[in-house]
Amino acid sequence: MRNETTPIGRQALLDEANQIIRHHEDYIHGMEATDVEQKGSVLVFRGDYFLDENDLPTAKTTAVFNMFKHLAHVLSAKYYLQD
Fold first, then answer.
1. Which candidate, 11, 57, 55, places its Cα nearest to that of 33?
2. Is 53's pLDDT higher than 90?
3. What is the pLDDT of residue 83?
4. What's the mean per-residue pLDDT of the chain?
5. How far apart are CA 82 and CA 21, in angstroms?
6. I need a surface site. Which of 9, 32, 44, 49 has the fewest CB within 10 A?
7. Helix, strand, coil shares of the chain as percentages rounded to 5?
8. Are 79 and 7 within 8 A, CB to CB?
């Protein structure tokens, strides 16, 4: 699969991911990808999941999870992480 995707550096990938987030209709203020790693052919994004003071999910948690899933789907088809 790597033959069909383009190598990209971590910061460039995070920049593109955050641009996608900010322009997405489900964007929530403060939503941001702060890290990414390659798991096989899938890019896994991380960031604040808006947990409450007891580290339990909030209403925003599902939106963030879905956004990171969307990023994984869209960007894994285009890129692989170049370390």
1. 11
2. yes
3. 74
4. 95
5. 22
6. 9
7. 40, 20, 40
8. yes
Angle between helices 10-23 and 59-76 (to 10 degrees): 120
User: Contact 17/36 with Cβ under 8 angstroms?
Assistant: yes
- Given a cut of 50, is residue 45 above it in pLDDT? yes
Question: Are the beta carbons of 46 and 68 closer than 8 angstroms?
Answer: yes
User: Taking the alpha carbons of 80, 24, 59, 14 in that order, is the dihedral positive or negative?
Assistant: positive
Report the pLDDT value the prediction gives residue 3, as an integer from 0 to 100: 61
Architecture of domain 2-81: 2-Layer Sandwich (3.30)
CA 63-67-72 angle, to 5 degrees, is 150
Return the structure tokens found at 13. Answer: 């990938």
**Residue 1: what pLDDT?**
44
What ranges do the domains of the chain cover? Answer: 2-81
